[in-house]
What does this fold into?
Amino acid sequence: MLASRAVTVAAPPSPFARAWTARWPIGIELALFLVLMAVYEWLRDLVATEDFERVLGHAHDVVDLERALGAFWEPDIHHWVQGIGPLEFTTTWVYTLAHTTGFAVMFFWVWFRRRGSYAMFRNWFWITNALAVVGYWLYPLAPPRLSGLGLADPTKESLELGGSLSWFQPFRNEFAAMPSMHVGYTVLFALTIFWLNRGSRWRWLAFLWPAGMLFVVVATANHWWLDGVGGAAAVLIGLVIAWRLSGDLPMPWDWRPRRA
It folds into this structure.
């Protein structure tokens, strides 16, 4: 008699496993991105507070800490930039456009050029966003432009893009300042570029991106520089969480260029 052989058939991955590892076409990934971004914006608005005394008190605490550190630079940087027309124009539009454009470019680049690292990159991004929402809830903070320092808001009109996005302004959480994800995203992207371009002597230039964005958010009076530190901290904590939950996903720092 022929001995029967047991055949083990691997179970298909669960929907969550497919989502976590991004094992699907780019169209589904784009749809997921749009849904998660809508949820993120909704949560930002959900945790918004109307307690202006509280957010202003937090702003005063930030100012006191920066002064204690000898680094209360926001008014000086803002007024200097506002006095130079081309620089004011540049910082205003970099703040307005570079944020969304930056993560769109990064997501497409990692998907098409470093596909093996995409799932970890994407999970890290969204875990960091979740941490940011917790920060907005626990520590609502008035930005410099709303803290009674006499600083203008050069981005208000540009963010409405000629009125086409004015409908979005009532949903904008003005006190979602700590952490600054304008800075946090660029820290995440710079680290990703640095790790995924191993062997390039130019990869260090990626860190000019968060440095430049930190200058922009301060120059436009949308953030304190400590908000940028908070954004970087959220990114690093998010990285640790994503790494601990990653399982067998390839890590970006393990990427190696293919040999010819």
User: Anything to note?
Assistant: Residues 24-254 form one domain. The chain has a mean pLDDT of 87. The radius of gyration is 21 Å.
